[in-house]
C-alpha cells in the first residue's frame, strides 16, 4: 500500500541541545555539589547501618506511622542499608546525566549474516572433515555409535532409581484398622460419643501405641474430621448410615482433590470447604462435592464404639484417601 | 606521564600481553546503547538476580535443609517447645537470632518477587514492541526459558522453610505429580523418597534451588546478554534512527555509570521494601504438618495464576478400567500452562510465518502499528490476569464483600469471554490510535486557542507538528498481506492449498491498518 | 416403703417423677451456678430474669418468638444457654441490623447489665452453657501460648487464618477476625458454636486448651510488626500487590528519571 507511496522524509538526528551545566560554570558546580551530597547521604546510610547493628537493642520497638509498632533494629538496619545503596546509585546516575558527555552517538550495525565467502569456506571445511571421517560410508560405525549414545543416557536415569521406594500399595493404606481408637489431635485423648454435642467437630488421628511415633507421612493420610449432627439430618443410604454412630460421622481430612486439610466446617449449612481450591462438600450427603474442582467425595471412615464406650474405627477406609493417581480404582 | 598513568599503563600492558584484550576493549568501550526507561526493565531482573545470589548465599550459612524433627528452644516464645523440622527451626534462627538475618530473608524474598515482576514486564515490553523479531528469536526463547525456570526456582525457595504455608504448596505440587498418567505415583515416590512428605524432599530441592537452577540461570543469562551485546540493542523509532544504525550513549563512561548506578538503586529499593514491609512471616504460619491448614492459603504471585486456574477447573475425572485420570488437575496444572508457554516460545516464528517477513528488524514497533499482535498480547494478558485474580479469590471476596462462589463463576465465565473481548477492543483501539496519528500528521496539533472568524464562527487553531514528530509517526512500514496462490500456473490445485488459504487469511488480519500519511498526502493538504 | 410402693403403678407417677427429676436437675444446676456466683441471691436472679424477659419481648421476640421458641427467620433459643446470649448480644451481633448472610460484630445495642439480664432470662428457659467466670478465664495463668498456637492451627486457622485475621467461607459467609475480641467472647464462641462455627466440646478441646488458644490469640494480637508493616497478615496476596505497585513503580520512576535528558 503506502510503502509504494513516497514516505515522509527522515529529518535526521535533532541538533544537540546543551545542558545548563555545559554552558554555565555555576550550574556545573551546583551539579557537582549535588552529586557529592548524594554520595554523602549514602555514607550516612552506612553509618546508620553500623550503628543499628551494634547499638540498637533487639527488643526495642518504636511506633512508626503506617508501619505500626515495629522492631527498631530491623527497621533501621534496613533503612541504613537502603539509603547507603540507593544514594550511591542516585549519585552515579545524577553524575552521568549532568556532567558526563550527553551528546548522542551514532554507531552502525552489521547484518548478523556472515559474508558469503565465509559461508562457502565453512561448507567446504565441513564437507572435507566429513569426507575424511567417512561417516557416510561407514554405516556400521555410525549405527553402533548411535546405539551406544542412545544407551548411555540410561545410566544416569537408572542411577535415579534409588531416590525412593516403589509406591506399591502404599497410597491405598492408612493406619486405620478395625478397632483403632479415635484420639484428639493434638492431645491424644480417646473420645466418647457423649463428648460431642450436636454441631461439634473434632480433629482426630488413630491412636498409637505407648511410646510410638507418628510420622508426618502418617498424619498426611490418617487425619480425620469428626462431626456430630442430628441423625435425622443425614441423607444417607443404609450402608453409609451404618458407618456413622449416633449422628457422628467421620471423614478423611485429606482433600480428594489435592490433599489439603479440609477442615472448614460450616455448622449451619453442614458444608465442608477446602481453603486451598474451594471445593465444597455436603456432610449430610456423605461429603458429596457441591462446588469447586474436587471430583470425588471425601472418603468416609466407618465408626462405632468399643466395650469401654470409646469411638473406634469399624474397619479401615474402604478407598484410598487423598488426591487421585493413575492406579486408583475409583469406581 | 604521572605516576598513576604509569601504573595503570603497566597493569594494562601486563593483562593485554596475556589476553589481547585491548582490541576488544577498544571496540566495546565505545559501544552505543540507546537510552529509554523501558530498556531498563530487563536490567531490573538482572540486578535482582545478583541480589538473590548475594542474599541467598548469606542465608545458606545458617539454613539447615533438613526435615529432621527438632524441639524449638529459640527466642520466639509463641513456638517454644513445639516439634518442627530443622529447616523451619533454622529459618526461625535466621529471623530472630542472627542480626540482620530477618532483613536478609526479606531482601531475598522481595528480590525474588521483583525478579519475576521484572521478567514479566520486560517480556511484555519486548512483545509489544516486536523486539523478538529476526534476528532476536533465540533470545526470546531463552527469555521464556528464564521465566519458566524462575517460576520453578521461586516455588522451591518458597517451599524451603517448611512452614505451614509452604508445606501446603508442596502438598499441592505432589498432587500434580501424582496426577500424571501411568508414572505419577512412581515419580512422586521417587521425588519424596516415599510417601508425602517424608524427610527427603527439602534437602533435595535445596540442592536444586541453590546449585542446579542458579547454575542454569547463570549460563542462560550470560548467553542472553552476550546476544544482546553482539546483536546490538534495538531502538525506538525516531528522527535519525534507522535499521542500519544505533543512536545512544557510549558504554564508557555514560552507560556504565547509569547502569552501575541503577544496580545500587534496585538494591536500595529492595532493601527499603525489606525494611518497611514484612514478607513471608513464617513464624506466624507455624511448622508444617499435613493435618493443619490456614484460610487463604496462597502461593506467591507468579504461581497465583496457576492456582487460580486449578481453582476454577470443573470437577472432571475419568474413572475407567481401574484407573483414574484427574482432568481437574492435569488441564489447569499441566496442559494449559504447557500450551501457554509453548505458544509464547513459538510466537516469533508464528508471526513470521503469518507475515512472511524474513528481514532483520532493529527499529521497534509502536504497539498501535501492529494491531493484531497487540490485541493478541492483550488477550493473553487478560487470560492470565483473570486466572491470577481467581488465585486470590478468597482474599478479594472478604475484602470487597463478595462471595467466593461469585468470584469463581466470574472467573470461569470471564476466562472464556473476556480475552476475546480484550482482543476486539484492543484491535479497535489500535486502529483508532493510528487514525489519531494520521489526523495529527495531516492537520497538526490542537492548540486550544479559538479564533473568531470575520463571519462570527469559531475555529480552533491547529499547529503543524515538527518534522521529527511527523517522521516518528509515519516511519513504520505497513504490512502487506500475503497472497499465496491456491493454484499453480497451470490452474491445478497446489499441495498445501488449504494451508495457504489459512495463511492468507491470517496475514490479511495481521495487515489491517489505517493508511499512514505519505508525502503526497501532506502536499495535497498544503495546497488547500 | 409400703406406702410408696402402693402407688408405684399409679398413672400420675410417671409425670410426677419426671417433674421431680426436672426439679432436682434444676436445683442442682442453680446450686451449681450459685456456687460459682455466690453473691447473687435467688431474689436478684428472679428480678434479672424478669427484666430480661421484658427486654426480650421488646427487642428479640419479633423474630425469636414470644417465648423464645423460634420462628421462620430465627432459631429457638431454648437451651442455648447464657453463654450464647452473652456472645451474640455482647458482641453486638444480635439484634441483627439486617437480614444479610451473617450477623456481624458491631457496637452492642444493650449495655452490660441488660446483656446479663437477657442471658439470665434465656438461661432460665432451659439449661445450657453458662457464661465463663473471670476465675475460669484466667488464661494468663492457665494457658500456654505455644500449645495454644498448635491447637489454633489445627482447629481454628482453616477458617480464621494463621494469624486470626479471618477468612472466607462459602456463599459470602466469613469467619471474622479475632483481633480485639474479648477472651470471654472467644470462650463462649468455642462452647456454643455461633452461626457457621462448629461447637468445640470440653472433652475434645478441654477448658485448659481453650484458654491456651485464647492466650495465643492475645499474643498474636499484641505481637508488634517484627519485619515491618504486616500487610494485613493474609499471606502472599498483599505481598504480590505491593511488589506490583510500590516495588516496580518506584523502580520504573527511577528508570524514567535515568533516561530523561538533563536540562
From TrEMBL, chain A:
Keyword Iron-sulfur among record annotations: yes
Cofactor(s) needed for function: [2Fe-2S] cluster
Pfam families: QcrA_N, Rieske
InterPro entries for the chain: QcrA_N, Rieske_2Fe-2S, Rieske_2Fe-2S_sf, Rieske_Fe-S_prot, Rieske_Fe-S_prot_C
GO molecular function, one term: 2 iron, 2 sulfur cluster binding
Keyword terms: 2Fe-2S, Cell membrane, Disulfide bond, Electron transport, Iron, Iron-sulfur, Membrane, Metal-binding, Oxidoreductase, Respiratory chain, Transmembrane, Transmembrane helix, Transport
One GO cellular component, as annotated: plasma membrane
Subcellular location: Cell membrane
Membrane topology: Multi-pass membrane protein
Record's keyword annotation contains Transferase: no
Transmembrane segments: 35-56, 76-96
Domain Rieske span(s) in chain numbering: 221-312
Protein name, entry field: Rieske iron-sulfur protein
TrEMBL record, chain B:
Transmembrane regions: 44-63, 109-128, 140-160, 172-196, 208-230, 251-279, 329-350, 370-389, 409-426
Primary localization: membrane
Pfam families: Cytochrom_B_N_2
Coiled coil: none
One of the record's GO molecular function terms: oxidoreductase activity
Gene3D superfamilies linked: Cytochrome Bc1 Complex, Chain C
Listed PROSITE patterns: CYTB_NTER (PS51002)
SUPFAM superfamilies found in the cross-reference section: Transmembrane di-heme cytochromes
Keywords: Cell membrane, Iron, Membrane, Metal-binding, Translocase, Transmembrane, Transmembrane helix, Transport
Residue span(s) of domain Cytochrome b/b6 N-terminal region profile: 11-237
Database matches in InterPro entries: Cyt_b/b6_N, Cytb/b6-like_sf, Di-haem_cyt_TM
Keyword flag Iron: yes
Entry membrane topology: Multi-pass membrane protein
GO cellular component labels: plasma membrane
GO BP term, pick one: respiratory electron transport chain
Protein's cellular compartments: Cell membrane
Annotated PANTHER family: CYTOCHROME B (PTHR19271)
Protein name listed in UniProt: Unannotated protein
From TrEMBL, chain C:
InterPro entries in the record: bc1_cytC-su, Cyt_c-like_dom, Cyt_c-like_dom_sf, Cytochrome_c_Oxidase_Subunit
Membrane topology, from the record: Multi-pass membrane protein
Domain Cytochrome c: 47-126, 143-221
UniProt cross-references to Gene3D superfamilies, sorted A to Z: Cytochrome c-like domain
Keywords for the protein's UniProt record, in alphabetical order: Cell membrane, Heme, Iron, Membrane, Metal-binding, Repeat, Translocase, Transmembrane, Transmembrane helix, Transport
Entry EC number(s): 7.1.1.8
SUPFAM superfamilies, per the entry: Cytochrome c
Transmembrane feature ranges: 241-260
One Pfam match: Cytochrom_C
Any one of the GO CC terms: plasma membrane
Recorded GO MF terms: heme binding; iron ion binding; quinol-cytochrome-c reductase activity
Record's subcellular location: Cell membrane
Reaction(s) this enzyme catalyzes, per UniProt: a quinol + 2 Fe(III)-[cytochrome c](out) = a quinone + 2 Fe(II)-[cytochrome c](out) + 2 H(+)(out)
PANTHER family on file: CBB3-TYPE CYTOCHROME C OXIDASE SUBUNIT FIXP, CYTOCHROME BC1 COMPLEX CYTOCHROME C SUBUNIT
Name assigned to this protein: Cytochrome bc1 complex cytochrome c subunit
Amino acid at each position: 500500500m503506502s510503502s509504494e507511496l513516497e514516505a515522509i522524509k527522515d529529518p535526521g538526528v535533532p541538533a544537540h541541545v546543551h545542558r545548563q551545566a555545559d554552558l554555565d560554570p555555576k550550574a556545573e558546580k551546583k551539579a557537582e555539589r549535588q552529586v557529592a551530597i548524594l554520595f554523602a547521604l549514602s555514607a550516612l546510610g552506612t553509618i546508620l547501618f553500623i550503628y543499628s547493628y551494634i547499638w540498637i537493642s533487639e527488643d526495642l520497638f518504636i511506633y512508626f506511622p503506617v508501619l505500626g509498632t515495629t522492631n527498631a533494629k530491623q527497621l533501621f538496619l534496613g533503612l541504613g542499608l537502603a539509603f547507603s545503596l540507593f544514594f550511591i546509585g542516585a549519585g552515579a546516575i545524577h553524575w552521568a546525566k549532568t556532567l558526563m558527555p550527553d551528546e548522542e552517538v551514532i554507531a552502525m550495525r552489521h547484518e548478523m549474516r556472515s559474508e558469503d565467502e565465509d559461508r562457502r569456506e565453512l561448507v567446504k571445511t565441513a564437507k572435507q572433515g566429513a569426507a575424511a571421517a567417512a561417516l557416510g560410508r561407514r554405516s556400521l560405525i555410525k549405527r553402533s555409535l548411535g546405539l551406544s549414545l542412545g544407551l548411555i543416557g540410561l545410566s544416569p536415569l537408572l542411577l535415579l532409581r534409588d531416590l525412593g521406594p516403589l509406591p506399591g500399595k502404599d497410597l491405598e493404606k492408612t493406619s486405620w484398622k478395625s478397632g483403632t481408637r479415635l484420639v484428639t489431635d493434638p492431645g491424644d485423648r480417646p473420645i466418647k460419643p457423649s463428648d460431642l454435642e450436636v454441631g461439634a467437630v473434632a480433629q482426630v488421628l488413630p491412636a498409637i501405641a505407648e511410646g510410638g511415633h507418628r510420622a508426618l507421612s502418617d498424619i498426611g493420610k490418617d487425619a480425620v474430621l469428626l462431626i456430630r449432627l442430628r441423625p435425622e439430618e443425614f441423607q444417607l443410604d443404609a450402608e453409609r448410615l451404618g458407618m456413622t454412630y449416633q449422628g457422628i460421622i467421620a471423614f478423611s481430612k485429606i482433600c480428594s482433590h489435592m490433599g489439603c486439610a479440609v477442615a472448614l466446617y460450616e455448622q449451619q449449612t453442614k458444608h465442608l470447604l477446602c481453603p486451598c481450591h474451594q471445593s465444597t462438600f455436603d456432610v449430610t450427603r456423605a461429603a458429596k462435592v457441591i462446588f469447586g474442582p474436587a471430583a470425588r467425595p471425601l472418603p468416609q471412615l466407618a465408626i462405632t464404639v468399643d466395650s469401654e464406650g470409646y469411638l473406634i474405627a469399624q474397619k479401615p477406609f474402604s478407598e484410598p484417601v487423598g488426591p487421585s493417581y493413575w492406579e486408583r480404582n475409583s469406581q | 606521564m604521572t605516576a598513576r598513568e604509569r601504573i595503570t599503563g603497566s597493569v594494562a600492558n601486563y593483562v593485554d600481553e596475556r589476553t589481547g584484550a585491548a582490541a576488544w576493549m577498544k571496540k566495546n568501550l565505545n559501544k552505543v546503547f540507546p537510552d529509554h526507561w523501558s530498556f531498563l526493565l530487563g536490567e531490573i531482573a538482572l540486578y535482582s538476580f545478583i541480589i538473590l545470589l548475594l542474599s541467598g548465599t548469606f542465608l545458606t550459612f545458617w539454613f539447615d535443609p533438613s526435615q529432621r524433627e527438632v524441639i524449638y528452644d529459640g527466642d520466639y516464645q509463641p513456638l517454644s517447645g513445639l516439634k518442627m523440622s530443622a529447616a523451619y527451626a533454622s529459618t526461625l534462627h535466621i529471623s530472630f537470632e542472627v542480626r540482620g538475618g530477618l532483613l536478609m530473608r526479606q531482601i531475598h524474598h522481595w528480590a525474588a518477587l521483583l525478579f519475576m515482576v521484572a521478567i514479566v514486564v520486560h517480556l511484555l515490553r519486548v512483545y509489544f514492541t516486536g523486539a523478538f523479531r529476526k534476528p532476536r528469536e533465540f533470545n526470546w526463547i531463552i527469555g521464556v526459558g528464564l521465566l519458566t525456570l524462575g517460576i520453578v526456582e521461586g516455588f522451591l525457595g518458597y517451599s524451603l522453610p517448611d512452614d505451614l504455608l509452604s508445606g501446603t504448596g508442596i502438598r499441592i505440587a505432589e498432587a500434580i505429580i501424582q496426577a500424571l498418567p501411568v508414572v505419577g505415583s512412581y515419580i512422586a515416590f521417587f521425588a519424596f523418597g516415599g510417601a508425602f512428605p517424608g524427610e527427603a524432599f527439602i534437602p533435595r530441592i535445596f540442592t536444586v534451588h541453590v546449585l542446579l537452577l542458579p547454575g542454569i540461570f547463570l549460563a542462560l543469562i550470560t548467553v542472553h546478554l552476550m546476544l544482546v551485546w553482539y546483536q546490538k540493542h534495538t531502538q525506538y523509532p525516531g528522527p535519525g534512527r534507522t535499521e542500519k544504525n544505533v543512536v545512544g550513549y557510549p558504554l564508557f563512561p555514560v552507560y556504565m555509570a547509569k547502569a552501575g548506578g541503577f544496580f545500587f538503586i534496585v538494591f536500595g529499593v529492595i532493601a527499603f521494601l525489606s525494611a518497611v514491609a514484612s514478607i513471608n512471616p513464617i513464624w506466624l504460619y507455624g511448622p508444617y504438618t499435613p493435618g493443619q491448614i490456614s484460610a487463604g492459603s496462597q502461593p506467591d504471585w507468579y504461581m497465583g495464576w496457576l492456582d487460580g486456574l486449578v481453582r476454577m477447573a470443573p470437577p472432571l475425572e475419568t474413572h475407567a478400567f481401574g484407573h483414574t485420570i484427574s482432568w481437574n488437575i492435569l488441564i489447569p496444572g499441566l496442559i494449559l500452562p504447557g500450551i501457554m508457554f509453548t505458544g509464547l516460545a513459538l510466537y516469533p516464528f508464528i508471526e513470521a510465518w503469518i507475515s512472511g517477513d524474513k528481514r532483520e528488524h532493529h527499529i521497534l514497533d509502536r504497539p498501535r502499528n501492529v494491531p493484531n499482535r497487540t490485541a493478541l498480547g492483550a488477550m493473553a494478558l487478560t487470560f492470565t490476569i483473570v486466572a491470577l485474580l481467581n488465585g486470590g479469590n478468597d482474599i478479594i471476596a472478604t475484602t470487597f464483600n463478595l462471595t467466593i462462589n461469585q468470584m469463581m463463576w466470574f472467573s470461569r465465565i470471564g476466562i472464556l469471554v473476556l480475552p476475546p473481548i480484550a482482543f476486539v477492543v484492543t484491535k479497535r483501539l489500535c486502529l483508532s490510535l493510528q487514525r489519531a496519528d494520521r489526523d495529527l500528521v495531516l492537520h497538526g496539533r490542537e492548540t486550544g486557542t479559538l479564533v473568531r472568524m470575520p463571519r462570527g464562527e469559531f475555529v480552533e487553531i491547529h499547529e503543524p507538528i515538527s518534522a521529527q514528530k511527523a517522521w516518528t509517526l509515519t516511519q513504520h512500514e505497513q504490512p502487506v498481506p500475503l497472497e499465496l496462490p491456491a493454484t499453480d500456473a497451470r490452474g491445478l490445485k497446489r499441495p498445501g492449498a488449504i494451508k495457504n488459504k489459512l495463511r492468507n487469511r491470517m496475514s490479511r488480519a495481521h495487515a489491517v491498518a489505517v493508511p499512514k500519511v505519505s508525502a503526497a498526502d501532506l502536499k495535497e493538504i498544503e495546497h488547500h | 416403703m409400703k406406702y410408696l410402693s402402693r402407688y408405684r403403678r399409679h398413672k400420675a407417677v410417671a409425670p410426677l417423677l419426671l417433674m421431680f427429676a426436672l426439679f432436682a436437675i434444676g436445683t442442682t444446676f442453680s446450686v451449681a451456678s450459685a456456687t460459682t456466683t455466690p453473691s447473687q441471691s435467688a431474689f436478684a436472679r428472679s428480678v434479672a430474669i424478669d427484666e430480661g424477659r421484658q427486654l426480650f419481648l421488646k427487642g428479640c421476640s419479633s423474630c425469636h418468638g414470644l417465648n423464645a421458641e423460634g420462628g421462620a427467620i430465627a432459631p429457638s433459643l431454648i437451651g442455648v444457654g447464657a453463654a450464647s446470649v452473652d456472645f451474640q448480644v455482647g458482641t453486638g451481633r444480635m439484634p441483627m441490623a439486617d437480614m444479610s448472610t451473617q450477623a456481624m460484630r458491631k457496637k452492642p445495642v444493650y449495655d452490660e447489665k441488660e446483656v446479663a439480664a437477657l442471658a439470665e432470662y434465656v438461661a432460665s428457659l432451659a439449661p445450657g452453657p453458662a457464661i465463663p467466670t473471670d476465675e475460669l478465664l484466667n488464661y494468663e495463668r492457665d494457658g500456654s501460648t505455644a500449645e495454644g498456637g498448635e491447637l489454633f492451627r489445627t482447629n481454628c486457622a482453616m477458617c480464621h487464618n494463621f494469624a486470626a485475621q479471618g477468612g472466607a467461607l462459602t456463599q459470602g459467609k466469613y469467619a471474622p477476625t479475632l483481633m480485639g475480641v474479648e477472651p470471654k467472647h472467644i470462650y463462649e464462641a468455642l462452647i456454643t458454636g455461633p452461626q457457621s462455627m462448629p461447637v468445640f466440646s470440653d472433652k475434645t478441646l478441654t477448658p485448659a486448651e481453650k484458654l491456651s488458644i485464647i492466650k495465643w490469640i492475645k499474643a498474636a494480637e499484641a505481637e508488634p510488626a517484627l519485619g515491618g508493616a504486616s500487610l494485613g497478615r493474609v499471606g502472599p496476596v498483599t505481598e504480590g500487590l505491593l511488589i506490583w505497585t510500590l516495588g516496580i513503580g518506584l523502580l520504573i520512576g527511577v528508570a524514567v528519571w535515568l533516561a530523561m535528558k538533563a536540562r
